[in-house]
Amino acid sequence: MSLPKDFLWGGAIAANQAEGAYKKDGKGTSLVDILPSGKERRDALFHPQKALETNFNHYPSHEAIDFYHTYKEDIKLFAEMGFKVFRTSISWPRIFPKGDELEPNEAGLRFYDDVFDECKKYGIEPLVTLNHFDTPLYLVTEYGGWRNRKLIEFYERYARVVFDRYSDKVKYWLTFNEINMLLHIPFFGGGLIISDDENANQVKFQAAHHQLVASSLATKVAKEINGDEFMIGCMLAAAEIYPYSCHPDDMLKSVKENQKQYFFIDVQSKGEYPSYTKRLFRELDVELELEQGDVEILKQYPVDFISFSYYSSRLTSADPEVYKTNKTSGNAFASLRNPHLEASDWGWQIDPVGLRVTMNNLYDRYQKPLFIVENGLGAVDELKDGIVEDDYRIDYMREHLKQMIEAVDDGVDLMGYTSWGCIDLVSAGTGEMKKRYGFIYVDIDNEGKGTGKRYKKKSFEWYKKVIKSNGEIL
């Protein structure tokens, strides 16, 4: 089976993990800008009030890898690998520093003009995420984040400005990054600070409703501005959830857990809340507040394609005793340890076949084109004599790409593949630099120290051959 000739090979980064220059040219503060690195970061993510009140020693997003100033050098390296597409995000507070202004920041708009022009110079299509975990901090502290319906208006204004500005430069758009992360890390996903005396589920699902309406309104605006020339996608943190055993209770638990992760995409793709949410909301004591027109806007403006990240599968069990001794890490999701799988340096279980399973299930469920926009291995790389021998990364990606191609052979309609962190960047979950994903090594350490110099890893030439052969040579 061969991939389509127009298959979009490339790589992905996020503004808040790469750009740095966090106060440059009028940029406002994002919620990520108050997060530290290392062990303190997780505590700050789950206790964001502490992050607001604490002065930390190091804020990795403030400098990151300085993509703001090195984008020409970096995009040139992407072009050398043969990228057809480059996924990045626009920093919302670069365009609207506080988030609620009526007029955008022109300097911020010019920066992305320059980035997209540089991509076009090499024939690279930008794939742009509107909100990748960097909601303006002012919207968190003054409005309560996405629990406040006013953010729909602010987001729609932001979307209209960038859609109009880049209508002839960007074709592919994503409305929210890993939108289901709102349920797992609500500060990251929705700028939510939830007090102990609140029904957390009510707050999170109401915020989710606001984001879903905002996503549909953004799709509406996009179609008004550029018709079918724009393709608007949603983005899911995907990981097929297997049952821990073949016990019927475990099987049922896996069904229910998968429904929770697909809930957002069900709405964005099908345009309505799925039937299973009636019982889910009842059991969680959630009662959504909908305003007139919400149901219609969701129905009229579903997304054009389904994009997702995939790093590992997960396990679940109906037996709480199993969780006491068998938990492991994942992409912000706790999971049970799968005895059939190896794990990365950070405990993420490596399951290439799970990518094929996930792709088949997503396509069967939605019958819309898929786009893998994040996949890769976070590992500790050693730079020695200007070289990183990262065969472990090549092995990881080769096995995942094999299964990706098998899924296409299964009948899945796949638009493209962008590996995560194609150049080393700050880890979202840990704030570390030592957790590296890239084909390009960046000489910066966990404290933000280093030359910033770029080095091609062994995987750089490997991925170049993969792209040139359109996946025939792995």
UniProtKB/TrEMBL annotation:
GO terms for biological process: carbohydrate catabolic process. GO terms for cellular component: cytosol. Keywords: Glycosidase, Hydrolase. One of its GO terms (molecular function) is beta-glucosidase activity. The keyword Hydrolase applies. The active site is at 374 (nucleophile). NCBIfam families: PRK09589.1 (NF007154), PRK09593.1 (NF007158), PRK09852.1 (NF007356). This is 6-phospho-beta-glucosidase. It comes from Natronobacillus azotifigens.
